[in-house]
Specification:
single chain; five-stranded mixed beta sheet; binds dinuclear copper ion; 12 strands; elongated
């Protein structure tokens, strides 16, 4: 009887010692790793804090997959511990049965359930937006986003690197690329879709709560790929319509002397060859439309917060802030002209 007890206690003690040693050596690191990873679970670009119908489904699928992976991992680790510590003589046990159950049956059952669950979501997520939905055309360019709101009553409204949406309304994005493959992704609102040169892809989204979110390019597209982001503002339908009406209007004529000088610097420096400012002679289409650039939340496609100080930084250190971007650094301008130009652009709200 005593021999049997010792035989039972031995592996248990081995397991306890192993767990204690693992805990003493690894727990500070595991804690740190968990904290670092958990920090990515909320915020303006988190797929785990959904703010859209598709994102809610994707988050639910993620949690089911995490549970499924946890079940498989626990079964595998349990079998490994059993084989090495409790039953180190596999020849005397039906090892093939354990391999078949743990290595084939459990993963097949769990993965089949997850496949069926995931596929069942697809038809709704891929269905087109209902007739009459808001339509927004977005073109990915190295390394910024051209955004166009289609209008049934006149010219489309063109802006850059910022998208505003009404809450609880479906919207259809018509996605294109002007150069290489980009990928349009607003993790808080839904899944991502590639933007392929010469082709139009579509994405239906429906925000479920107001807030400010972050979108990003999810396909490597060259040197400044990581600096190709945009802001998404979801607000009430009324606030959205007020904003859209304001975007439709031509640029304000500057009235401050500094901004008036800045406008002269803008045209003297040839900025209008690449940029448009509606209501003026600037009609360039190579770079972002600047009609209401001062009212946007960021500069350089999410690279800098938008204020007059950062306009000066952006104009003079363009190639340092965003390497390889098509716009040259304008560091040949005098300090006075730079300040005036920044004041003019900042006032274009
Ligand atoms: Cu565009 Cu990466």
């Amino acid at each position: 009887m005593r021999t049997i007890l010792v035989e039972v206690v031995k592996p248990v003690r081995r397991l306890t010692n192993l767990a204690a040693s693992f805990s003493a050596h690894c727990s500070p690191w595991i804690g740190l790793i968990i904290i670092i990873h958990a920090a990515g679970c909320d915020g303006a670009q988190s797929a785990l804090e959904p703010a859209g119908r598709s994102a809610e489904k994707i988050a639910r699928l993620f949690w089911w997959m995490a549970i499924g992976a946890g079940v498989i991992w626990t079964a595998m680790v349990g079998l490994a511990l059993y084989a090495t510590l409790v039953s180190p003589r596999p020849k005397s046990r039906p090892a093939s049965l354990q391999i078949i159950v743990g290595g084939a049956v459990v993963p097949t059952v769990v993965l089949s359930f997850l496949l069926a669950y995931g596929l069942a979501m697809m038809p709704d997520m891929l269905a087109p937006a209902p007739e009459g939905s808001l339509k927004i055309a977005v073109t990915g360019e190295q390394w910024w986003w051209r955004v166009r709101y289609e209008s049934s009553t006149g010219e489309p409204i063109v802006l850059a690197n910022e998208i505003r949406l009404p809450v609880d309304e479906p919207v259809e994005f018509q996605l294109e690329s002007a150069d290489v493959i980009h990928s349009f992704w607003i993790p808080s609102l839904g899944g991502k879709v590639d933007m392929i040169p010469g082709r139009q892809t579509r994405l239906k989204l429906e925000p479920t709560r107001a807030g400010v979110f972050r979108g990003a390019c999810a396909e490597y597209c060259g040197g400044s790929h990581a600096l190709m982001t945009f802001v998404v503002v979801v607000s009430s339908k009324r606030d959205f319509e007020v904003w859209l009406e304001q975007q439709r209007a031509p640029a304000k004529t500057p009235i401050e002397p500094m901004a008036m000088l800045g406008e002269k610097v803008f045209f003297k420096s040839g900025c209008g060859a690449c940029h448009a400012v509606r209501g003026t002679a600037a009609k360039g289409v190579i770079g972002p439309d600047l009609t209401h650039v001062g009212g946007r939340m960021s500069l350089g496609a999410g690279t800098l917060p938008n204020d007059a100080e950062n306009f000066v930084r952006w104009l003079t250190q363009t190639q340092t802030i965003k390497p390889e971007v098509h716009m040259p650094s304008f560091n040949m301008l005098s300090q006075g002209d730079l300040r005036a130009l920044a004041t003019y652009l900042d006032a274009l709200e």
